[in-house]
Amino acid sequence: MLLQQVVFDPCMNKISCILFLHGSLVYFYGGTPLYTKRGFPSLNKGELGLNLQNDKKTRKNPQGKVLSVYIKQEGALHMMLLFPVLFTFVYRYIPMAGIVLAFKTYKARFGIFGSPWAGLENFRILFSMPGFLDSIRNTIVISVLKIVIGIAVPVIFALMLNEVNKLRLKKIIQTIVYMPYFISWVLMAGIIIKMMAQYGVINQVLGYFGIEPIIFLADKEKFPYIVVISDVWKGFGYTSIVYLAAITGIDPNLYEAAEIDGAGRWRQTLHITLPGMIPVIILMAALALGRILDAGFDQIFNLYSPVVYKTGDILDTFIYRMAFQNSQFSISTAAGLFKSLVGCILIVISYRFAYKISGYQIF
Fold it and tell me: Are 30 and 76 in contact (CB under 8 A)?
């Protein structure tokens, strides 16, 4: 289970998303052979010999001889989508049957479906546990800080990078700040632990100023801020891509008109660039609300210790400990079900909010 969560799931999710997106893109471009003779994807309708009008007729009337044409044209696309669909079904939908464990008293000899029913007793026990309420509070606090600072820092960085005129220097800066995003939290946590150790780099620097060594990761007051700062540091470069794209979409004529009126770079940024980014900022904030109960399991699991449970334990780590360390599978399933239901409601609300503000929609 742990190997699946840490290694298998992230890799398969990325592969599935790539296949799904590529298949969808080719599908909407008319659906024909996926690759050219050289083996590279081609979306050129002229090269592929697509006839969208005939293609629409084929899809509307897949009967007799037309069905064979439909299978020939679209079969490869559906076969490519088969793997992501099967993966999602096997690893996302079939395990949902285990939700019944939240309403049972799990007995290993009877199994999940043979264990006796407990009704809502597991939820009553769950909400009476002080650690669970602390984990909810910690999750919300850490998530809100990550959302606020995780939006502010990339926006400021994008504005600053936009002012760099030398293209070579801009590319070097972008490459440097993007790199931490592609480092896994297992490696990143090791780096942070070494840097913040009693004789680490940070304490050595503080020693030059006469400050006694501080064990940062064992300080329950400092731990949430370390989590937030390290998360922002790791991801702000990659997140800034969205805001840089928003800046490039602003009409250059606005800057020219402002320059003619005597506006300097600061006033252009304040009255043109920043207002042009506001719709994207609001959209990103609205979408982030749906993930407010996901405070970052990988990060905190690799950084925290029992001495910081009071301020560092989140819902995901609480569920993990209840299941794999305390073997209380029924209560951990109840906690997971509670998190999923609340998260689902928040996602619906956030997407509705995003649609109302910026017209963003999935379907």
Answer: no
